[in-house]
Specification:
Structural class of chain A: mainly alpha
CATH architecture of chain A: Orthogonal Bundle
Number of strands of chain A: 0
Chains: A mainly alpha, B alpha/beta, C mainly alpha
Strand content of chain A: under 5%
Distance between the termini of chain B: 64 Å
Radius of gyration of chain B: 23 Å
Shape of chain B: elongated
Largest interface: A-C, 86 and 81 residues
Number of helices of chain A: 11
Largest sheet of chain B: 10 strands, mixed
Number of domains of chain B: 2
Helix content of chain A: over 70%
CATH superfamily of chain A: MetI-like
CATH topology of the largest domain in chain B: D-Maltodextrin-Binding Protein, domain 2
CATH superfamily of the largest domain in chain B: Periplasmic binding protein-like II
Number of strands of chain B: 12
Oligomer: heterotrimer
Distance between the termini of chain A: 41 Å
Amino acid sequence: MRQNWKDLCIKGWIFFSVILVTGMAIYVMGHIIVNGWRSISLDFLISSPRGMPLGSEGGIFPAIIGSLALGIVSMLLASILGIATAIYLYQYCASQRIYSFIRLVVQCIAGIPSIVLGLFGYTFFVVSMGMGYSLLAGGLTLSIMIYPIVTINTEKALAEIQKEQTLVSYSLGVSKSHTFFHVIWPERKNDILSGVLLGTVYAMGATAPIMLTAAVLSASSPTSLFEPVMALPYHLYIMASERISIQNSYGTALVLLMVLFIAYGFIFLLIRERRVDKQ
Amino acid sequence: MKVQKMIIVLFLSLMLVISMSGCGNGETEEGAAEFDGSLNFAGSSTLAPTISQIADSFQNEYGTWDQVDASLPEEEIEISVSTGGSGAGAKAVLDGTASFGMLAREARDEERDALDAYQETKVGIDALLMAVNQENALGASRSDLSAEEVSRIFSGEISHWKEMDDSLPEEEVILLVRDVGGGAHGVFQNAIMGEKDVSDAAIEVPTMSGLVDRIMDNSQGIGYASYGIAQQHQDDLVAFSLDGIEPSESNIMDGTYPVSRPLVLVWDGELSVAEEEFLNYIKSDVGYQTINEMGFLPVQ
Amino acid sequence: MSNNRLEKIFAIAVKSLTVMALLTLVFIILFILKESLVVFQETSLVDFLFGQEWRPTSANMRLGLRPIIMATLALSGLALVMALPVSVGAALFLSHVCPIRLRRPLRSFIDLLAGIPSVVYGFIGVVMLLPLLEGIFDMSAGDSLLAGGIILAVMILPFIVSTTAESMEASVKNHVMTSKSMGVSHWYMLRSLVLPSSWTGIIAGAVLGTSRAMGETMAVMMVVGNSPLMPTSLFGRVKPIPSLIALEMGSAPLGSMHYHAIFGAGFVLLILLLIINLIFYFLRKRIEF
């Protein structure tokens, strides 16, 4: 088959796009890895910020713990609400209209810009409810942000179950709750957990919602829900915009990316296990 | 199954670690229900690194409150510092999210009035230097600027260097200013600009150190740099004298240099025991030295 | 019969949690609206939305969002224009050209890109993009509308690719078989059949990308200069709504007019995004059928 020039055009366009995208991604990540690697040492990771001004000589331990804490708090809250919503949609929702409506609302919550959530979180959680800048306020704000991810992913996970299994269960007189815990959950827990993990990772990388509700320049590792925390993305932002230490900014960025990759690794393994099990 | 178990174990252990550190505090908490060992500072980005530094020394030196004063419980010293600008500092005290507000300017009347029992203490003096990059042409040819000229530059009336002086290049003047929350913003506005607004085209930098950094990066930039921070970068910046007055330490201390600003800590009402202890530390020799090292002019 | 009670508790828990979550949306919208209303004592709605100057702290307070709104729109528009062609090309590759074995990892790679936090993109923008722009275009300061647009384009790429590729994959079965049996070249099939029929998917991807671009805060804030000017030149500095909120919220005293104005700006952004997300939702529904 002769390839006329139009075909060549589209071929060229497609390959150009792909090379551009992958090239850029690799260059950017490579840049961070190469530059950040120099900053990362056991010391950098384990100690608190040092140097004059603080942070210029490394030490991001409180930020790492702070981010993990924020991730856990927001994950717990979001997964309770998110999984519940997904269960409702899958097991209890009878009317198509209500179903569409709920999905619409969830989509809209996903559409709330993160800074507006931060604004809301500040005025409502921090001030009105008197929580002050705290892990709790930040966690609550973040949980609103990731709730749609958890819901949509869990619902997808539930929907992939073979309809027969649940129907047979119901027809045998098994209650919905029992069906969930003993039929659906064991089968689908990997996908559900990976959805939750995805949300958690998203929460840990977010800056805007915690800027106004929980994150501070320097603090110790969180010991209670009611204290402010340091967080990796916020720390990166401060280090970069205050030009305290570009070198350590690279290090912080790399740590953040590593946390991301590790989490994605887990998710990948979880999903793969499911497929292996099936065989 | 294995991966899941790994995750669950990881998760549980993390929770355990976090809660264990929390548990330790809980026990002593019961015995001294009134005592709150955590302090928050919020506000000026100029003052924040200094306070962080002092807090760090304080925490390293004592560790727990009972080491500071034997009558206090054995609780971890927790001091957190956040930036946001002087405006944010005043606001944080007002809405109760911080124990102390850090301000790099005089508190405004509205701010004083808004608090039930406004209190402040001055810890140092800073000044705003009109500064340019080492390679800037204006810096090379002139060493003094009149307040009038500065005002015209920052309002945008002089938008290209050539307009100031024919010998200068035909380049756009890059204005570097603090955003509206910064203490420097208000100080500069009052001392130099008066009724005139700073040009819309100015680049608003969210922190003072960022601003200084931008000046150092950009040969066409001009901005107002904190004296303290400029001290740390003397070789990279050229500062002008204003209306003939040098921004020297003595001129700033006695007020001759017109664009000086106080560094104050602000709070509402009575200080708690912990707050008072730390405040004393800030005003002690250690605090004095740190403020000095950071380039500011300490006040006792 | 404890099973019965457990069942009842389960059902109630699930339903009430769902309702609680949904009510949050309403609550947030109303809350922000309420805090914004105060602005209109000072400025009329028209003046607020279309006023030319944003000077909330000057002696002569002016609260006009026009340059800010235009900045938000311009940034997203620019990002979309840059990202869309590349994304569609990549999506075509992913769904039709890429060898099957590479598909899964490539897809995961794209999802990975989507997960990179916005601060990291902003950081890269500051250390890589700004100096690059300053060098190429001989700018004194790289912060510009262009820088913001480029960063946003990179950020929304994975989203557009994902959405578009999904809809293209749906058309695979239809077109591949028929084309092969008619002896039509792969490329001809792609440009004459797949592209036109994926139109809805492409638009959905574009809408999703736009919504992400408009709501994006950190990355943009770090490279765009934040001067509240109208976006008249690619090299000019602008200040979109998210930057406005992030930068000014810290210092606007609780209850002041500035504070309420920021809420007003936030509300405008919220409504804009809600509308765009609604559009996306309905487009998505059409694809799924």
